[in-house]
Amino acid sequence: MTLALRGEKLTRTFRSAAGDVHACVDIDIEVAEGELVVVRGSSGAGKTTLLNLLGGLDQPTSGRVWIGDVEATALDEDELARVRRERLGFVFQSFGLIPIMSAAENVELPLRIAKTAPAERDRRVAEALRLVGLADHAAQRPGELSGGQQQRVGIARAIAVRPHVLIADEPTGQLDSRTAATVMDLIGDLVHSQGLAAVVSTHDPLLVQRADRVIELHDGRVTSVGGHAPAGPGPADEASGPADASDDAEGPSEDAPHPPRTRAEAREQRHTDG
Ligand SMILES: Nc1ncnc2c1ncn2[C@@H]1O[C@H](COP(=O)(O)OP(=O)(O)OP(=O)(O)O)[C@@H](O)[C@H]1O
Ligand SMILES: [Mg+2]
After folding, report:
1. Which residue range(s) make up the domain with 54?
2. What are the protein's UniProt keywords (predicted)?
3. Which of 46, 177, 203, 259 has the smallest C-beta neighbourhood within 10 Å, fewest atoms?
């Protein structure tokens, strides 16, 4: 298993006149290549805060983040921006498309920013739109597309840069339940077929079924981690009630010492050993 994303003891405290808000407390999270991890929790549980920390959009009060083998929390702003651009794809609840641009132009935008050559840009745009099933809608503007189609453009834009990690904060929050399930299936398919790692937040219990693993947040703390299925259909019976943490009997425990699973981990262990 190669880790694509790792957060270690992530804590984010917001200070305000009314007192401190502990949005994330001591959260450990690992996401492997080809793994879809769903972060679930009620409103205010800390999902967006956690995703922002993992995506380098916010800095933790304490704790560390690795994107692949790069420690994101050790980078300066410019370096972090580059790592974000090259390795991460973001999908937002509000789609975040530019209304006057066609679907293809929206998908192309991050490639322009990354200064990808024009011919390669065209190839990637076509490929990304095909992967989300919108090859025939390339010329349409967001206003001429349905909500589900718009979100698929948002996903195409995120994957066009061929990120290692997809970070999606309630990508289905604005969609009806059937469309939401389709979008979530698409994310699951992309993760498993392209070897992407994905962290997706939701409070929709139905979407949790698509996850390889579910992390439950409550008041900024992880209350349970459930489901350890590899690629393929996720654990189907976690739709109601908190996931039971007892089902990782055959998987290695998250905090037990283990042999290095990635080159980065091996390096890390060598460092801490000596
Ligand atoms: N910039 C901020 N300043 C102060 N408090 C904040 C800030 N951002 C988030 N919080 C607080 O941190 C807690 C977690 O918020 P967060 O947005 O992460 O929750 P969430 O799980 O994403 O909720 P939702 O499902 O409503 O999107 C909340 O109590 C929130 O009020
Ligand atoms: Mg949120």
Report:
1. 3-97+165-273
2. ATP-binding, Nucleotide-binding, Transport
3. 259
